[in-house]
Amino acid sequence: MKNKNCCPKCGEKLKPLYMKQNCPKCGVNLMYYKLDERLEEDAIKAQKEVDSINRFSNMLKESTIKTPWHIARLILFFTPLLSMLLPMFWAGHKKVSLLSFIMSIVNHGFDFGALTADKSYLFAILAIIGVIVFSLAVIISSLFSSTKNGFRRNMIFSDINALVFIVLSNLVHYFDGRILAGFIVTAIIYALEYLLHYLCEKPEKRKGISTIVPSVLLIVSLIINIAVSYTSNYIRTIDKESNALRVVSFNLASPWGTSIDGTGSEERVIRFADYMKAASPDLIGTQELNSKWLEKLSKLLPEYESYAVKRGGDSDENTSEMNGIFWNKKIFTAVETKTFWLSKTPEKESRFTFTDENGETKEAGCNRICTYAILKDNGNKKYAFLNTHLDNSSEEAMNFGAELISKEIDEITAKYKNIRVILTGDFNQTSNGKAYKTISEKLINSQLINNELKATYQEWGYRDTGNLPIDFIFISENNKIKGCGYLDDLSEGYISDHYGIYSDIQK
Which DSSP symbol is given to 460? Predict the structure, then answer.
């Protein structure tokens, strides 16, 4: 092939910017020399390109819309991308789907450590990603179905897709996860995919049998996966001595969660009630309780009486939180109940405000309260059961709230001699915080006898929140601790974005 910067007749090399019409050596007209031949060559080349495009276009038509079976297969190829939006697995103690995974990243960010902490959840996510990736590979492969090895190639890609799905799904099961409706729908799609491959291509008998055998085995494996009973162990039982008084503190996150991943409020209130029946506490201090939960718990837990006041200042009824307290009415009778706001005007609905070092007025993130009841047991012993939730955005508000609670405890103990004080609460800080230290100067952290430190806030398992608790049960010195622990059994799903804690004290 001659260089384009050379004369087409004599081959004389021309300068890149040579602009004259004739060759400087032989004088031939550079533009018109053998013009007809060159035009014919260009026409032939163009026709080849058109023929190539037509062949490719015909191949695509043959592979995708040749018959109604081809059209059905083409549509079916995209359905796994939709079935991934359905709940695929119960893993990581919640429903896992493509939608729930996307929402978890939007709401909580991506935390690789949290993702790998629960192996069932990790493999469930990998299974969903695998379906998406290999489904795209199957789609691309199917575009070349009408070629010589198209059928075999389609079956191989579908086999790889199904095999990866089966392996990862069995790993989910191995690590105590279980399948949900989305898995079954996807398995049916894969079985139909194999059938449509055969109906579309109709391979020769020998080639068809040798290619279909491994596919049939994979379909059988999928059916076995569906047929296996994926159950969980219900282990929510905690032994308690007959002469022990059990106290629970639990941030319920009642307005929060989503049904997409199985953390919806409606289902969690039932789980909480079931958990309390199994744990059998005598006193329960709750944070982030709302009126909907309070109404339902009054029916689900009829053996308890309760007292709760809305803190106010929230956007709507659903998020108007309460620090509800519950007591076993067979053991206790309420002598007095009270709620005060952790502000400079504790007797009325209000929010803590302060002036910072720059002279600007600041305030707590929201209204904060402490609720308590003076209770008398069957032996006429009196208990002051307080429950609070310190601020989450202002350290000044946390510290002020702790100081106000400390003063209220002084007033209670002055009014009721030898009263036994119990304080439950979400402090929104660890034991390193000033508010914690303020309370610990007056009361004892009943969890200190527990050698295991564990984060009580876990953000539904979507983020690593360390290993230090922010929820506490404090008791006065005239209480004797008999045991304590975490209410962290998630066998039936998340109760809250916190774990509960319990302490047993001698009656």
Answer: G
Cα–Cα dist 322/308, whole Å: 6
Q: How open is the CA angle 188-193-194, to the nearest 5 degrees?
A: 105
Alpha helix (H) ranges present in 235-290? 265-279
Q: Which residues contact 476 (CB under 8 A, 6 or more apart)?
A: 413, 419, 420, 421, 422, 443, 444
For 73, the token pair is 């297969």
Task: Take residue 14 and report the two structure tokens written for it.
Answer: 């021309």
The pLDDT tens digits of the residues spanning 389-439 come to 999 999 999 999 999 999 999 999 999 999 999 999 999 999 999 999 999
- Residue labelled with tokens 């079935």: 83
pLDDT tens per residue, range 257-315: 999 999 999 999 999 999 999 999 999 999 999 999 999 999 999 999 999 999 999 88
Q: Could you tell me if 339 and 371 are in contact, meaning their C-beta atoms sit under 8 angstroms apart? A: yes
pTM listed for this prediction: 0.84
- Which residue matches tokens 């000044």? 396
Q: Are 493 and 180 in contact (CB under 8 A)?
A: no
Q: Residue 478, Cβ neighbours under 10 Å: how many?
A: 11
